[in-house]
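Open question from group meeting: does this chain pack into something compact, or does most of it stay loose? Before anyone orders reagents, we agreed to write out a predicted structure and look at it together. Recording both the input and the output here so the notebook holds the full record.
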Amino acid sequence: MSVELRSEQTAIRTDLGAIFVSIELSRSVWLLTSLSPGAGETMSKHSVRGGDVAGLLTQFAQLQEKARARTGQMYPIIAVQEAGLDGFWIHRVLESEGIESHVVDPASIAVSRRCRRAKTDKIDGEALVRTLLAYKRGEPRVCAMVRAPSPEEEDRRRISRERKTLTAERVQHVNRIKGLLFAQGIGDYEPLHRDRRTRLDALTTGDGRPLPVHLKAQISRELDRLELVLEQIKAVEAEPDHLLACAEEVAGAVPPERLLHLKGIGQEAAAVLWAEGLFRTFGNRRQVAAYAGLAPTPWKSGSVDREQGVSKAGNPRLRTTMIQLAWLWLRHQPGSALSLRFQERVRRNGGRVRKPMIVALARKLLIALWKYATAGVVIEGAAMRPA
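Structure tokens returned:
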């Protein structure tokens, strides 16, 4: 009797009101795994050439036709795919065709904790279908569905992200030039100074020789690339001004200009905060902290009770910006309640917990900025810029 009950509990639900389809995406092949009404517990597998949207829609139509032949009814399709390299364009195509589509965070799906677990596209496809079934049944926390941004929201992010990429390239070029010269006994050359070309011609090695011909040519080419990156950074840094100026025109957007009234927050930080997070709608402060990956992750089991640090499961760009902004907040807003509480906690612990505490400050500051930007709740003790 207990065996029969256990088998009923673990069986796949077959009284479906839709056709559930998971799409495993790759560059070459898309694998479709579907569970249809009237097919029992059997999941069917179909493959489509990667990027073939017409073939994908044809497979969906065939699944609906087979379900109609078995049951006499036409069922809608509910599709799910993992967030990844393909972005959201497939999701938008499916929604434009009237198909209910979901994008799931793959890291939120529970997997076997065995040391060596089997992983194939077939296994992943079936797991996605089961996850989608549980999600549609309303099971809490079975997975985390991604809210796909609009094309306009997605495009606005590129300004801050491109600047970060260019800044990293600038650092690489500078370090490469300094490394080449340091191997020749030269340690006082600054590639970012305006007289970099003139100084290069006058450099001599540590043992009194002029720069070798090929080394000098290599550094000149590095300077060419560095100057191109500097020009591109200057062009990209002008974009946030336009972004902030046009923010009020975007329907439902959080006005980032309000953030500029606070001392310590500049245009670049305000643009990143808005484009990476504050434009979204959050239900509570826990959602804000979780989206930035600043939510705490406790580890409690029996008598074991410890904190593992922040989850780091959210937007890494927003999290990095908030850590940097927390240090700036201490410098420019020393009289705010957040800064005073931070200093008191650090002083109480003998100054040993500044780094862990700065993460906590970043989380509290993000929540306070969210309340200020969306509801106008003034941050306690914060100094404002003169009008």
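Observations to bring back to the group:
Residues 1-10, 249-254 have pLDDT under 50 and may be disordered.
The first strand starts at residue 19 and ends at 24.
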